[in-house]
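REVIEWER CHECKLIST
Item 1: Sequence provided? yes
Item 2: Single chain? yes
Item 3: Sequence as submitted:
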Amino acid sequence: MSFSVKCECSERTETEINSVRCLSGIKDFFEQQTNNGVFIVLEPQMPYYRFGGRKWFADVWYKCRECGCLWEVIYPDFPACGRVRKFPDGIYKPT
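Item 4: Structure as written out by the authors:
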């Protein structure tokens, strides 16, 4: 009997990271999925924001090996919130 870990991408949604508790839960989830081999960690290749010649990049991207979903994580710099964005088709689309 073989055991395979299924992704939870279809059950998860984008979210704002507005508390230390939320941040902890998000970090735990992505770490667990990475350790289980469901997600791979990627260096962000495109900025999520541009202004005046400057570019801002996410802290990390995660790619699901099961369904191809791409997750963008921008950690908060409290009091500013962070966020998690989901790209189900695996193609990044900056805002």
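Item 5: Key structural point noted by reviewer: The first strand starts at residue 15 and ends at 17.
Item 6: Recommendation: ____
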